[in-house]
Amino acid sequence: MSGEHLLSKLAIKNTSGDLEALLAFKSATKDQYDELTNPSGVLNLGVAVNKLQEEVILKKLNSVNQVVKEDLEYFDPTGTLPFREAIADIFNRHFNVHKQVESDQIMVVNGVTSGIDVITSVLCDPGDAILVSEPYYSMFVTDVSLRAQAEVHGVQVPLEEIQLPSQVTYYEQKLKELASKGIKTKMIIICNPHNPTGKCYSRKAIGALLRFANENQLFVLMDEIYALSVYRGKDVSSAGTVESSDDVLFPFESILSWSNLEEFIDPSLVVIVHGLSKDFCMNGFRIGWIVSPWNKNFMEAVSVTSVFSYQASLVNSMMAKVLGDREFIDGFINLVSTNLLDAYNKTTSYLKQNNIPYTPAQAGHFLWINIKEPLLTWKNNNLKPGEARLTSTDQLTFDDEYAMWLDTVNRGRIYITAGVNFKASEPGWARIIFAQPWDKLKVGLDRLLAFTTSSEPQS
Ligand SMILES: Cc1ncc(COP(=O)(O)O)c(C=O)c1O
């Protein structure tokens, strides 16, 4: 028998999924649009990167890029001390911490993706359930399952309750439902600020979820990867104009800032992740970190596996210099929120002008948009033989949404993320990334509208 057939059961399970979406993603990243060199390439409005400060961060990186002999050596796989000290400094100066974060409470990993894998392996057994409110960042599913073999179970929270404490009732129902099937729930993930809606949770909502987790002895993974990418409603004075009744602005409050955390939960159940990819615009460096000031056993257990999430020594030394430069970092963090606000305003004006509803956001690189009308037009222009015309958006299905999404990448040459990937509650939602220069973004939005509403049928 050939070795090709002798893979582990886990590997076989991991490779047996639907590869169509992966291929579309590959084509979007391989054949990227460039105004001059590749105008027919795919315009990427799908991958959450913030391109607005590219020149600033490149200049800074090139100024600290010097290789010394220590960079050739092995080092502490949980991250070099100067780097962990620089990360602690970021928390202590920018997360309004209740108690100073220490460098030994931090473990550096190669990306938050890797961090979630490590955390899940340490906290969950195969088959354990992890609750996440829908819509959610789709990669949570693979992050917790590919190696750790835990499973995300979505909790359907209506959009209007996503910032509110009332959402806890949906978690309670899900927990009961899983228990009745003999499935053990071990953890909840709270993504605050939230991907894909760009909203911040109210303190009351987090409090209710913490109490729920505590009562049921569940770990709480706080994914705060967009903590410093808040651009509206950072505090009362910068709240700006409220756009509509669903535009409820809460300031982002890191779990590290809670002075009375013990009143809600045993803090040893709480873990935080953050990293370079979003707030510092360096996705490609593949660096994230896990923080748990309250659970030494947990930190020991994750650090045992740190040899598998080792990063380049050179990146540690460069990042110690970049994050350790307080003047640069403070200016950079301000610039990020100013630029995001500007891009958000331009994008939302465009959406309003073109009658595309969206969920008002306050953080992150994305907007959660309602594309039911373009989807209906696309669907009716691309009916299969024998299919009847649809008369209302209520008749749309997730299959229609998926088919349009594939067509949008393959023929329309725009990559967005379809709501079905985030487990949206109904067809016709998508996430677009607006944190990119307006001239390129506008080409993408124009293409998206023109393509979905054009009467040219699917080939
Ligand atoms: C909510 C959330 N968590 C984690 C990640 C993964 O980040 P990293 O690049 O550090 O692996 C992302 C990336 O899009 C994200 O949006």
UniProtKB/TrEMBL annotation:
Positions in coiled-coil regions: none
InterPro entries given in the database record: Aminotransferase_I/II_large, Ethylene_sulfur-biosynth, PyrdxlP-dep_Trfase, PyrdxlP-dep_Trfase_major, PyrdxlP-dep_Trfase_small
Keywords: Pyridoxal phosphate
SUPFAM superfamilies found in the cross-reference section: PLP-dependent transferases (SSF53383)
Short name of any one Pfam family annotated for the protein: Aminotran_1_2
Transmembrane region(s): none
Biological processes annotated in GO: amino acid metabolic process
Residue intervals of the Aminotransferase class I/classII large domain: 42-440
GO molecular function, one term: transaminase activity
PANTHER family, per database record: AMINOTRANSFERASE CLASS I_CLASSII DOMAIN-CONTAINING PROTEIN, BIFUNCTIONAL ASPARTATE AMINOTRANSFERASE AND GLUTAMATE/ASPARTATE-PREPHENATE AMINOTRANSFERASE-RELATED
Name of the molecule in the record: Aminotransferase class I/classII large domain-containing protein
Provenance organism: Furculomyces boomerangus
Lineage: Eukaryota, Fungi, Fungi incertae sedis, Zoopagomycota, Kickxellomycotina
